[in-house]
Specification:
single chain, about 260 residues, TIM Barrel, 8-stranded parallel β-barrel, 11 helices, about 50% helix, globular
Length: about 260
């Protein structure tokens, strides 16, 4: 990314597929949503192909790769099946996330430090294929150092605990989580890692994260898909981008 301070927005379209799958059939179409998101100003599209295919399907990935003008960020578990799919499609980016079948959504960051050797070998062919490899992790120095050692180019910091604390009105915990995210954004940047962030972000919580100068991209999905019911997808994305740019502009002005 250039030094203009522009913060990228990746829009996760998983839960368009969740709505489709609740009824069966082909509507609403996640690929159509992805194209609308691009038209509304999304810098990239994120899709998580889960092992149980609870929302995004293999056909959705085929359709996204064919239809998108911008980059696809392919979220996936670190399994042989998912590696084969990624190597077949060669998306712009691959983001490794933890995955448990019983969870409703991704509950935490990937445990990199304990699986360093396995993950280093796992990501090597993805990097050789030209995919940017990102690791979704907690704001934890040990995990960030491990992600750096195994050759990841990007980390995505899990903002879920910060967002949950805000929603629960636990502002002391929220501020602790925010401070950790701020510190670890700077630490990861100092190692040469590109820093992204996401999970649970809303209009109420996005600006403090967007203000971190080291963060180059936010990935936001569930809230935007839900908000699109009331505003429409384009206006929902437009408002999120406005808040992000406002926060980043404030950061640049204070730095100047």
């Amino acid at each position: 990314m250039s030094d203009t301070g522009k913060l990228r927005l990746g829009v996760n379209i998983d839960h368009v597929a969740t709505v489709r799958n609740a009824r069966g059939g082909a509507y609403p179409d996640p690929v159509r949503a992805a194209k609308l998101a691009e038209e509304a100003g999304a810098d990239g599209i994120t899709a998580h192909l889960r092992e149980d295919r609870r929302h995004i399907s293999d056909a959705d990935i085929d359709g996204l790769m064919a239809a998108l003008k911008g980059p696809l960020n392919f979220e996936m578990a670190a399994t042989e099946e998912m590696q084969k799919i990624a190597l077949c499609h060669k998306p712009h980016a691959v983001c490794l996330v933890p995955e448990k079948r019983e969870e409703r959504t991704t509950e935490g960051g990937l445990e990199v430090a304990r699986e360093e050797n396995r993950l280093a070998h796992f990501i090597a062919p993805l990097r050789e294929a030209g995919c940017r490899v990102s690791i979704f992790i907690a704001a934890d120095k040990r995990q960030i150092e491990a992600a750096h050692r195994i050759g990841a180019e990007v980390i995505e910091l899990h903002t879920g605990a910060y967002c949950d604390a805000h929603a629960e009105g636990n502002f002391e915990e929220r501020d602790r989580e925010l401070a950790a995210l701020r510190e670890m954004s700077g630490f990861a940047h100092s190692l040469g890692l590109e820093v992204h962030a996401g999970h649970g972000l809303t209009y109420d919580t996005v600006k403090p994260i967007a203000a971190f100068p080291e963060v180059k991209e936010l990935n936001i999905g569930h809230f935007l898909i839900g908000e699109s019911i009331f505003r429409g997808l384009g206006p929902a994305i437009g408002e999120m981008r406005r808040l992000m740019e406002e926060a980043r502009g404030d950061t640049l002005r204070s730095a100047g």
